[in-house]
C-alpha cells in the first residue's frame, strides 16, 4: 500500500491498477476524439478529390512560414509537456510547474500566430460567407477549402484553449501538493491530451498548407 | 514504481527527429513529384504521429492491453475511410443506366 493513501482509491487492487485504468479511460476518450476529427478529415479528403484545382489554388493563400513556425512551436510544447510529466514521475514540484508554464506559453504563442493568420484571412476576404472574394473560376470550390480550413483549425484551436485550462488546473493541483512520485496520473493524462492535439496539427499542417506548392 | 521513466536524452532525440521531419515535409512539398507529393506528406505525418504516440505518450512502455485500445481508435478511423472511399472513388467506374437521371 502506498504511503500517500489519499491518492490511492480503494476500489483498485493497487496503485498500478489505478494507473492502468486511468490510462485506458483516457485512451477511450482519445479514440472518440480520433473519430471526431476523423469525420472532418474525411470530408476534407472527399472534397479534395472533387475540387483538386481549387484546393491547390486556395492552399497557396496560406502562409507556409507561419504554419511551419507554428508546427515547430507546437512540437516544442509537446517536448516541454513530456518533460513536465517526467519531472512529475520523479516527484518534482517546482520543475513541474515551470515545464507546465512553458507548455502554456508555447500554446499561447501558437494561438497568437493563428489569430494573426485568421486576421490576415479576414483582411483578404477569404472567410467563407457573403464577403468571400476569390479571383478565378473556382471561387465557390475555394470557399469549400476555406470552410474546412476554418472549421478544422478552429476546432483544433478550441482544443488547445481547453488544454491550456487543463494545464492551469494541473499547476494549481501541483502547488497544492496533490501529487507525488507515486500519484502523478492527472498530469500524465493531461499530457496525453496535449500530445493528441499536437498529432492533429501534424496532419493539418501538410494537408492545409502544402496541398500543391511545387 | 512500475512506470518506466524515459531518459531525457530520448525525449530530446525524438524532438530533434520531429523537427527534422517537419523540415523534410516542407522541403519535399516544393519539389514537383505529382501524386507522390501527398503520399510523402502523409507518410511523414504518420511517422511523426507514431513517434509522438510511442515516446511522448509512453505507449512503447505500456501494457499490451493499452496497445489494443490505441490501435482500436485508429482501426475504426481506417474503417471510416475505407468504406467511404469504396463509394467515392468507385462512382465513376460504372456509367449511370439510362432513365436514372
- Classify the helix fraction of chain B into a percent range: 55-70%
Order of helices and strands of chain A: HHHHHH
The biggest beta sheet of chain A is recorded as: none
- Give the CA-based shape of chain A: elongated
Number of domains of chain A: 1
Q: Total helix count of chain A? A: 6
Structural class of chain A: mainly alpha
What percentage of amino acids of chain A are in beta strands?
under 5%
Q: Oligomeric status of the shown chains?
A: heterodimer
Compute the CA-based radius of gyration of chain B.
Answer: 20 Å
Report the principal-axis shape of chain B.
Answer: flat
Class of secondary structure makeup of chain B: mainly alpha
For CATH, the homologous superfamily of chain A is named as Cytochrome c oxidase, subunit III, four-helix bundle
Which residue ranges of chain A are poorly predicted, with pLDDT under 50 across at least 5 consecutive positions? none
User: What is the domain total for the residues of chain B?
Assistant: 2
The radius of gyration computed from the alpha-carbon positions of chain A, rounded to a whole number of angstroms, is: 21 Å
Order of helices and strands of chain B: HHH
Please count the beta strands of chain B (DSSP E, at least 2 residues each). Answer: 0
Q: What is the helix fraction of residues of chain A, given as a range? A: over 70%
